[in-house]
Amino acid sequence: EALARIVAASPIPVVSAVGHEIDVTISDFAADRRAPTPSAAAELISPDTPAVLDRIGSLSGRLRRSMQRRRGQAGERLLGLQRRLQQVSPQQRLRQQQQQLDGLDLRLARALKARLARSTED
C-alpha cells in the first residue's frame, strides 16, 4: 500500500508493469498507465524513433527557411538604410549641387549666346 501511495503521488507519470499479463498489483491501479509486461512498458515510454527523426527533419527545415527569410529581410533593410545614408551624405549633396550648378551654368551660357545674337542683329 505504501508503494501505491508513492506511485499515486508522483509528479512524474508512472507506468506499472510488474510481472506478466495475468499479474495485477495495487500499483497498477495507482499508476498513470499500465502495461501488461515490462517489455510493453518500455515500448510505451520509448519514442517512435522514425517519427521523432521525421519531426526533427521537419522542424529543421522550418527553422532553416525561417532563418533564410529573416536573413533576406535583414539584408533588404540594410540595403534600404545604405541607400538612405547615401542620399543624405555630404558627398551626395555636393554632387547634386554640382549638377545643379552645371545646369545653371549651361542655361546662363545659352542665355548669353542668345542675347549676344540678338544684340548683333540689332
Please trace the helix and strand order, writing H or E for each element. Answer: HEHEHHH
Rg value: 41 Å
Q: Give the helix tally.
A: 5
Number of strands: 2
pLDDT under 50 segments (min length 5)?
A: none
Please indicate the percent range of residues in DSSP E strands (runs of 2 or more). Answer: under 5%
Specify the biggest β-sheet: 2 strands, parallel
Strand order of the largest sheet: 1-2
Helix content: over 70%
Shape, per Cα inertia axes: rod-shaped
For the terminal residues, how far apart are their CA atoms?
A: 128 Å
SSE-based structural type: mainly alpha
Number of domains: 2
Mean pLDDT: 91
Describe the structure.
The protein is mainly alpha-helical and 122 residues long. It folds into 2 domains: 2-45, no CATH class; 49-121. It is 75% helix and 3% strand. It has 5 helices and 2 strands, in the order αβαβααα. The protein has helices spanning 2-9, 26-30, 38-45, 49-87, 90-121, and strands at residues 15-16, 33-34. It has a two-stranded parallel sheet. Strand 1 (15-16), helix 2 (26-30) and strand 2 (33-34) form a beta-alpha-beta unit. The protein is rod-shaped and about 130 Å long. The model has no long low-confidence stretch (mean pLDDT 91).
